[in-house]
Design a protein that fits this description.
Layout: H1 2-15, H2 20-35, H3 60-69, H4 72-81, H5 87-95, H6 101-104, H7 107-114, H8 121-133, H9 141-153, H10 160-169, H11 176-188, H12 192-197, H13 214-227, H14 231-240, H15 250-262, H16 266-278, H17 285-297, H18 301-313, H19 320-332, H20 336-348, H21 355-367, H22 371-383, H23 390-400, H24 407-418, H25 425-437, H26 441-453, H27 460-472, H28 476-488, H29 495-507, H30 511-530, H31 535-543, H32 555-566, H33 573-597, E1 604-606, E2 612-614, H34 615-620, H35 628-632
Antiparallel strand pairs: 1-2
Helix pairs in contact: 1-33, 2-33, 4-7, 7-9, 8-10, 9-10, 9-11, 11-13, 13-14, 13-15, 14-15, 15-16, 15-17, 16-17, 17-18, 17-19, 18-19, 19-20, 19-21, 21-22, 21-23, 22-24, 23-24, 23-25, 25-26, 25-27, 26-27, 27-28, 27-29, 28-30, 32-33
Keywords: Repeat, Transit peptide
Family: Belongs to the PPR family. P subfamily.
Protein name: Pentacotripeptide-repeat region of PRORP domain-containing protein
Length: about 625
């Protein structure tokens, strides 16, 4: 008992020192990582302790190293991990990063700081206070709305008022777009009553009632309610406001009609259509489009076609929105002939198709395995200058990798890449897996090289797909080289893939090669499995949360951490940022656990088992097991 009390006292004394030493330690560790040979393990140095009481002081060497390794957003976010005491200390620490306040208020940097990771509401407001107070010119309302939107997305509603107060003090007045962001955030978080009360009360001190009319504010509320599927409440508010001073217009009615149309409620659409006529309003093209959509969702495609023809007969020029509603209706009933017919009619009437038209049609063709029509539509989309997003390309490639040869998926990949589109990691994995299954080893290696050129790091699955593809065509020597490279980078391949390669080697009488590979894989698995057998290591992984925001955790963090732990990581810009974040996060959160668990961070401590462990020795031998840390959290 006395030994444990002495240990806790020792830990508290060691943690009362400057946090700036942690930053110096991290930068020195990153230098070692970047200069170390990939084949030699790297040992992280213990943190140096300086008695400097200023926790926010940073040396020029540290600032220069951080500028070379980290993006501006990461450097600014790292300041809050050091937890400077007080507003003045925080402002000095932010200014010492070498990033000007005007640059910090740029949309890219500001969004990267406040919209990613696990930034708290207080940290968001403090950073916004520093940036707007030290900027020579006041930012625009759109720039300030980035902060308001980030607070609302994470449900930090209590920090709306401090952020708005900072805006007003610096001469930036909130407008109707700010109000829309706040109302939409409240409704998305199911605080519908609070959002409705904003019409009559200035709950957050917005002050937009001085510049905006009541009709504009009511329109924003109706839009947000319908967008978040609260159409019934929006309908009740619209009915209740008919006899008041608010002049209802077509836009409000169209929002409510469109909300009911998405649910296929034709009766509600017809009711508000009649109400619109009673109020002296004439339905426009948008109203007809919503009626066509509602009839299509109610499986009444023929009636929707009659409404479309009636709209044209009354003198309304058909728009892209109307054609899309009609085409989507035919897709839902499986009538692809009329779908293509009205698509061509759209082109003849000079109604340019948009990205929604192509996305819906291509996905429908792929779902029905009409690959030739899907490829033709994809070529037309690219020829018109409409570039698909990264997610759309993945949606197109995914079904093509579930049936037949991978030729069509490869065509979409090549044409998208030629057009300048970015391919996702998931799309690369789907392609590599499918190509390896069909024995296209040459194409597999080519796509793997293109994937690395695009900045995507290779992980365990990628190596397994490549080894599997090489084994399928009998290129075992190349497969052995790939396995050795994966081991050097800290990845242990699965037993199924390794067993397949080992059997191929034995079939070809390459016993010596198989034995040498067996020894390397055995040693790698010993390193990967041995440390987690110790109960202290399991406790450490459960109690110390390496990255607290699970929304940004993915397999890339697991792989980078595993490879870094083995000391064999080939450092690139992404992995350095990941390692830096892991080290800083560990340093900042481990103090909370040290007193209760007796686990040392940056120092060696004695435990009840009589073993000597340190944070750095445990982290330096952390095994490669993607997903294990996530499962223990």
């Amino acid at each position: 008992m006395a030994r444990r009390l002495l240990l806790l006292h020792h830990l508290r004394r060691r943690y009362s020192v400057s946090v700036s030493s942690a930053e110096d330690m991290v930068v020195s560790s990153l230098r070692i990582l970047s200069s170390a040979s990939p084949s030699e393990p790297t040992t992280l140095p213990p943190p140096t302790i300086h008695p400097d009481p200023d926790a926010t002081a940073t040396s020029p060497t540290t600032t220069a190293a951080a500028a070379a390794l980290l993006s501006p957003a990461d450097r600014l976010r790292g300041v809050f991990l050091l937890k400077p005491p007080g507003r003045a200390a925080l402002h000095r620490a932010l200014s010492s990063t070498g990033i000007d306040a005007a640059a910090a208020l740029s949309p890219e940097v500001l969004s990267g700081v406040v919209s990613h990771g696990n930034f708290s509401g207080a940290a968001t407001v403090d950073f916004f206070d520093w940036a707007i107070a030290n900027s020579k010119l006041p930012p625009s309302v759109d720039t300030c709305n980035i902060v308001i939107r980030a607070l609302g997305r994470r449900k930090f509603f209590a920090f709306f008022e401090p952020a708005l107060e900072i805006m007003r003090k610096n001469g930036v007045s909130p407008d109707i777009s700010t109000l829309e962001i706040i109302i939409d955030s409240l409704i998305a978080a199911r605080h519908v009553n609070t959002a409705i009360q904003l019409i009559n009360t200035d709950h957050f001190g917005l002050g937009v009632w001085q510049t905006c009319q009541r009709k504009e504010i009511f329109t924003v509320l109706i839009n947000c309610l319908c967008r978040r599927s609260h159409v019934g409440l929006a309908s009740s508010l619209l009915q209740a406001s008919r006899g008041e001073t608010i002049d209802l217009d077509n836009h409000m009615y169209n929002e409510v009609i469109g909300g009911w149309a998405r649910f296929g409620r034709v009766d509600k659409v017809e009711h508000f259509w009649e109400t619109m006529l009673e109020d002296g309003l004439v339905p426009d093209q948008v109203s007809y489009c919503h009626l066509i959509e509602a009839l299509g969702r109610a499986n009444r495609a023929e009636e929707a076609l009659q409404v479309f023809e009636k709209m044209v007969h009354e003198g309304y020029c058909p728009t892209t929105m109307a054609y899309n509603a009609l085409i989507f209706n035919f897709i839902s009933v499986g009538d692809f002939d009329r779908c293509i017919k009205y698509y061509k009619d759209m082109l003849d009437n000079n109604c340019p198709p948009n990205i929604d038209t192509y996305r819906k049609m291509i996905r429908a063709f792929l779902r029905e395995r009409k690959v030739a029509d899907a490829l033709q539509m994809f070529d037309e989309m690219l020829s018109r200058g409409i570039l698909p997003s990264t997610g759309m390309i993945t949606l197109f490639i995914e079904p093509l990798c579930t049936f037949g040869p991978p030729h069509a998926a490869l065509l979409i990949y090549k044409r998208s890449r030629k057009a300048g589109c970015r391919i996702s990691m998931k799309a690369y994995k789907l392609l590599l897996e499918r190509l390896a299954m069909f024995g296209k080893s040459g194409t597999v290696l080519q796509i793997w090289e293109e994937m690395q050129e695009s900045g995507h790091p290779s992980d365990k699955e990628i190596y397994e797909f490549i080894v599997n593809g090489l084994c399928n065509v009998g290129k075992v020597d190349a497969a052995v080289s790939v396995v050795e490279e994966s081991i050097r980078k800290g990845f242990c391949l699965g037993r199924v893939v390794y067993g397949k390669l080992n059997n191929k080697l034995l079939e070809m009488n390459k016993v010596e090669t198989a034995y040498n590979l067996f020894k390397k894989v055995r040693d790698a698995r010993v390193i990967a499995n041995s440390l987690f057998q110790h109960p202290l290591m399991r406790l450490w992984c459960q109690e110390i949360d390496l990255i607290t925001d699970s929304s940004v955790w993915n397999d890339t963090y697991d792989n980078d951490l595993s490879a870094w732990a083995h000391g064999r990581h080939q450092v690139n810009q992404h992995s350095v940022r990941t390692t830096y974040s892991l080290l800083i996060t560990d340093w900042s959160c481990a103090e909370l656990e040290a007193d209760s668990k007796g686990i040392g961070v940056g120092m060696e401590t004695s435990c009840d088992m009589g073993s000597e462990y340190s944070f750095w020795s445990m982290a330096n031998t952390l095994p490669n097991n993607p997903g294990l840390i996530r499962s223990l959290r």
